[in-house]
Every structure is written in structure tokens, then in C-alpha cells.
């Protein structure tokens, strides 16, 4: 019987197995940041264990970092202490660290792909749920807890039960104005936030094959939001072209040898999945969330459903929305374009293309937060910074920013924020804040109009 892409990568990394039980999986790359690593480092110290493979670990400061005045001392005590602890731990253990201000600094799931650290066929982990982003390259990438971070530090392996396999196939032609973010929000809205629980998901079909690597990363990033352990897309020429020439990518003959192997990383025709879904690209429209989980999403042309469920009604009450109403013309005061979901150069090109020659609405605070120092430099070199500033948008410095409000970038209580991040939980962007997830294009349009608009229709 043929193997799935997931099987091929997983089986190549199994070190040991317990019959009908968990397996020991070797981890190629371990990404760490300042929030989930200190406890794991402390556990190793207490047990007198050293880090097994420091050269397989890459660290960056991202979650707690300020996005203004990064050259100044950090004011927040917790953030300052966490970053100092990360620096100390990495120095003591000889781990590569991209500190605040370093040219390679940025959000962990943005810098690893753009530096060529992420490569097809790898196993990658990080103490962060959106590690699934890296699956866009045909890697097995997933988030782990603090105790597992310590386990990888100590052994470069993890004891795991192999997940079941799931495939979501989307074929057809996407409508104008539909981006990769809309595709994944549509999938989650259709299948539900528990549809992937216990599974590793492969995305297949011409829609994903035709996406850029940035688009594929957006899709895989939000696999966790439908409950999946992670998401994967088979590597192809688009993948190879993206990786080639990157700082840590293989060079010359080594690269050619790697590509020869990477080309084998696709699901065999006779492979079977534990669960399969098939969706049509033509059914997808620009999407918005109306509730407090990413599965509560509707097309821009749809109204909020009429559901009689206590948690549904609690969610609508929090958002101050009504059953049956449309979100079109809903006034908003904040727009956040950034996060590990949508903070790559392609996202900002999309926004610049829309806002060029327009002006941000007076009632809107619009924050643009690049995912890395490299993206920030591209924004400037490509002339996008001038477009943004002329349009009245605020371009900030790299970091996780208002995705999770661990720093000063918080949305005030009761305010609506159209956000390109990945979660719209209660208080996710600040206590009492109300998050509406959308694509960079939908967010840019809302910033200009001062309200949610249907971008499929020309502006009056």
C-alpha cells in the first residue's frame, strides 16, 4: 500500500517504537522563543542535564517584544526579564539567538522559512501552537508544551503517538479578491474547529498547488484552528525555488541532491487517509469571523446564522452582534495587519496595492507590523513604506504585536479590530476586545472605509 506525505516524513524520523504504542521521533529543528523556553531550561538545570544538540536549535525574541522604539530599553518588567533570560540561556547553552534588533530577528514562524532553516522533509517543533506554519514546505511541524520543550532539549527526540491522517482537497478557480486566508477560514467554517482533532492534515488540489509559499504558510498556520496537530502541503517547484539561495539552505550539488529527495515527498496514488474532505474553490468568497472562535466565519455575502445554542449566543453577546445580521457597513476602529499568519512581504504588497492613492478613515487606528527585520527592509526598499505613510497607516517594528496582546499593542475594551491574525478568542487582543478575522485585503479595505465593506463590489 502506498504512503501519504505525512507517513513518508514521519517514518523517516522514527528512532524507536513501542508495539501498538507511542514512537520516539527524531526532531531536525527546534525553534524557541522567550515565553515557553525559560521553564524548560530551568528543568534541565535542576536535573543536571545539558542540551543535547544546540546546533539544531534556533532562538528568536518575538512574543513580548515592543513594536516601537526597539532601540530603547524595554519598559515592561516581565517582557524585559523574559528577553534577558532567553539571552542568558542561549549564551550558556551555545544556541543561536536572534535578539531584538538583530537583522535576522522576527516572529519565529516568519524568520525560519525566510532564512532557509525550514526545509522539506524535516520534523520541526516549537513551544508555540502555530508551528504548523512550516508544514507549507512538506515538513512535519507542530507545537509542543513546555515539558516537551525540555524533552527535545535533553534528547532531540519526542515520545509521541502517531496522529491519524486527514486530507482536505480544494480544486477549481478562486474568485477575484479571495486570498489564502479566505481559503483556510472557509475550510474551518465548513468543517468546524474540532474536525482535525487527532489528525495531521494534508492540503491537496490545484488551489494549493497554485498558491505562493506565503499563501501556503497562511493555510498551514491555521491548521491548528480546526483542531489538527499540523498541516502539510507537498513540496514542488514553487517550494524549491523559494528555498534556493536562502542563507541556511543547501548550496550547489548538495541542493540538487536534496531536491531529488524532496521530489519523492508526495502522497502515493494508492495511499489512503483516515478521513477526507473535498471542497470547491468557486464556493469561497472573502471571509469574516463574527464570533469568538475561528470556525465562526461567514462569507462577506452571508448573514450571521440563526443558531439556538448557549455558547453561540454567549459569543454573539460578547461581540455585540445579532443573529441574522450582515457585517457589511459595521463600523470598526482598529485594523491589525501582521502576526505569523499574515506578516510576510506578499501580505504587505497586497495591502499597498489596495491603499495606494487612498486615505485611512479618520476613526481607524491601522497598525502594520512586519513579521521580521527582513520584511521591514523589503517594505522600505520596495517603496511600500511611503505608500502606507501617505495613506495614514502606522508602520511598526517586527514582532507578534497585537495578535495576542502580550506587549503594549492591545485593542481597547469594547472596540472592534479587523485582524489578519489567527485567533478571535475573548480577550485575545486585549481584555474585552472584539476581533474579526479577515484577509489583509479585507483588513486594508476596512481601514480605508472605516467600516467593513464588500471588496468584491466597486467602491461608490
UniProtKB/TrEMBL annotation:
<dbReference type="InterPro" id="IPR018136">
    <property type="entry name" value="Aconitase_4Fe-4S_BS"/>
</dbReference>
<dbReference type="GO" id="GO:0009098">
    <property type="term" value="P:L-leucine biosynthetic process"/>
</dbReference>
<dbReference type="GO" id="GO:0003861">
    <property type="term" value="F:3-isopropylmalate dehydratase activity"/>
</dbReference>
<dbReference type="InterPro" id="IPR036008">
    <property type="entry name" value="Aconitase_4Fe-4S_dom"/>
</dbReference>
<comment type="similarity">
    <text>Belongs to the aconitase/IPM isomerase family. LeuC type 1 subfamily.</text>
</comment>
<dbReference type="InterPro" id="IPR033941">
    <property type="entry name" value="IPMI_cat"/>
</dbReference>
<feature type="binding site">
    <location>
        <position position="340"/>
    </location>
    <ligand>
        <name>[4Fe-4S] cluster</name>
    </ligand>
</feature>
<comment type="pathway">
    <text>Amino-acid biosynthesis; L-leucine biosynthesis; L-leucine from 3-methyl-2-oxobutanoate: step 2/4.</text>
</comment>
<keyword id="KW-0004">4Fe-4S</keyword>
<keyword id="KW-0432">Leucine biosynthesis</keyword>
<protein>
    <recommendedName>
        <fullName>3-isopropylmalate dehydratase large subunit</fullName>
        <ecNumber>4.2.1.33</ecNumber>
    </recommendedName>
</protein>
<dbReference type="InterPro" id="IPR001030">
    <property type="entry name" value="Acoase/IPM_deHydtase_lsu_aba"/>
</dbReference>
<dbReference type="GO" id="GO:0051539">
    <property type="term" value="F:4 iron, 4 sulfur cluster binding"/>
</dbReference>
<comment type="function">
    <text>Catalyzes the isomerization between 2-isopropylmalate and 3-isopropylmalate, via the formation of 2-isopropylmaleate.</text>
</comment>
<keyword id="KW-0456">Lyase</keyword>
<dbReference type="Pfam" id="PF00330">
    <property type="entry name" value="Aconitase"/>
</dbReference>
<keyword id="KW-0028">Amino-acid biosynthesis</keyword>
<keyword id="KW-0408">Iron</keyword>
<feature type="domain" description="Aconitase/3-isopropylmalate dehydratase large subunit alpha/beta/alpha">
    <location>
        <begin position="7"/>
        <end position="450"/>
    </location>
</feature>
<keyword id="KW-0479">Metal-binding</keyword>
<keyword id="KW-0411">Iron-sulfur</keyword>
<feature type="binding site">
    <location>
        <position position="400"/>
    </location>
    <ligand>
        <name>[4Fe-4S] cluster</name>
    </ligand>
</feature>
<dbReference type="InterPro" id="IPR004430">
    <property type="entry name" value="3-IsopropMal_deHydase_lsu"/>
</dbReference>
<dbReference type="InterPro" id="IPR015931">
    <property type="entry name" value="Acnase/IPM_dHydase_lsu_aba_1/3"/>
</dbReference>
<feature type="binding site">
    <location>
        <position position="403"/>
    </location>
    <ligand>
        <name>[4Fe-4S] cluster</name>
    </ligand>
</feature>
<dbReference type="GO" id="GO:0046872">
    <property type="term" value="F:metal ion binding"/>
</dbReference>
<comment type="subunit">
    <text>Heterodimer of LeuC and LeuD.</text>
</comment>
<keyword id="KW-0100">Branched-chain amino acid biosynthesis</keyword>
<dbReference type="InterPro" id="IPR050067">
    <property type="entry name" value="IPM_dehydratase_rel_enz"/>
</dbReference>
Amino acid at each position: 500500500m502506498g504512503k501519504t506525505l505525512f507517513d513518508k516524513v514521519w517514518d523517516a524520523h522514527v528512532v524507536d517504537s513501542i508495539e501498538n504504542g507511542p514512537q520516539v521521533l527524531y526532531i531536525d529543528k527546534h525553534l524557541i522563543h522567550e515565553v515557553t523556553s525559560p521553564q524548560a531550561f530551568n528543568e534541565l538545570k535542576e536535573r543536571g542535564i545539558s542540551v543535547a544538540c544546540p546546533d539544531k536549535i534556533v532562538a528568536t525574541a518575538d512574543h513580548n517584544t515592543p513594536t516601537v522604539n526597539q532601540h530603547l530599553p524595554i519598559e515592561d518588567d516581565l517582557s524585559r526579564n523574559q528577553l534577558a533570560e532567553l539571552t542568558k540561556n542561549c549564551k550558556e547553552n551555545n544556541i543561536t539567538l536572534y535578539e531584538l534588533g538583530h537583522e535576522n530577528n522576527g516572529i519565529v514562524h516568519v524568520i525560519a522559512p525566510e532564512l532557509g532553516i525550514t526545509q522539506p522533509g524535516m520534523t520541526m517543533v516549537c513551544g508555540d501552537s502555530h508551528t504548523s506554519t512550516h508544514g507549507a514546505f512538506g515538513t512535519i511541524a507542530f507545537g509542543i508544551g513546555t515539558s516537551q520543550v525540555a524533552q527535545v532539549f535533553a534528547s532531540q527526540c519526542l515520545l509521541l503517538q502517531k496522529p491519524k491522517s486527514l486530507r482536505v482537497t480544494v480544486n477549481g478557480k478562486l474568485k477575484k479578491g479571495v486570498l489564502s486566508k479566505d481559503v483556510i477560514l472557509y475550510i474551518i467554517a465548513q468543517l468546524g474547529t474540532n474536525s482535525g482533532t487527532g489528525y495531521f492534515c494534508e492540503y491537496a488540489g490545484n488551489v494549493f498547488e497554485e498558491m505562493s509559499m506565503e499563501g501556503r504558510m497562511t493555510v498551514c498556520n491555521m491548521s491548528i484552528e480546526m483542531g489538527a496537530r499540523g498541516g502539510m502541503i507537498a513540496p514542488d517547484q514553487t517550494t524549491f525555488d523559494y528555498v534556493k539561495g536562502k542563507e541556511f539552505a543547501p548550496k550547489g550539488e548538495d541542493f540538487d541532491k536534496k531536491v531529488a529527495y524532496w521530489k519523492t515527498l508526495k502522497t502515493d496514488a494508492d495511499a489512503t487517509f483516515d478521513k477526507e474532505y473535498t471542497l470547491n474553490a468557486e464556493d469561497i468568497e472573502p471571509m469574516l469571523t463574527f464570533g469568538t472562535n475561528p470556525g465562526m466565519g461567514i462569507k462577506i455575502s452571508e448573514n450571521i446564522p440563526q443558531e439556538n445554542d448557549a455558547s453561540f449566543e454567549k459569543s454573539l453577546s460578547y461581540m455585540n452582534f445579532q443573529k441574522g445580521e450582515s457585517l457589511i457597513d459595521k463600523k470598526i476602529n482598529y485594523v491589525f495587519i501582521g502576526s505569523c499568519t499574515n506578516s510576510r512581504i506578499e501580505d504587505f504588497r497586497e495591502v499597498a496595492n489596495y491603499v495606494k492613492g487612498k486615505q485611512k478613515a479618520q476613526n481607524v487606528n491601522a497598525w502594520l507590523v512586519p513579521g521580521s527585520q527582513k520584511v521591514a527592509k523589503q517594505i522600505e526598499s520596495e517603496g511600500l513604506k511611503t505608500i502606507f505613510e501617505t495613506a495614514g497607516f502606522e508602520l511598526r517594528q517586527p514582532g507578534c504585536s497585537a495578535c495576542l496582546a502580550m506587549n503594549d499593542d492591545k485593542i481597547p475594551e469594547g472596540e472592534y479590530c479587523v485582524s489578519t491574525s489567527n485567533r478571535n478568542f475573548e480577550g485575545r487582543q486585549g481584555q474585552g476586545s472584539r476581533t474579526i478575522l479577515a484577509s489583509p485585503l479585507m483588513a486594508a479595505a476596512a481601514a480605508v472605509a472605516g467600516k467593513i465593506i464588500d471588496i468584491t463590489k466597486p467602491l461608490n
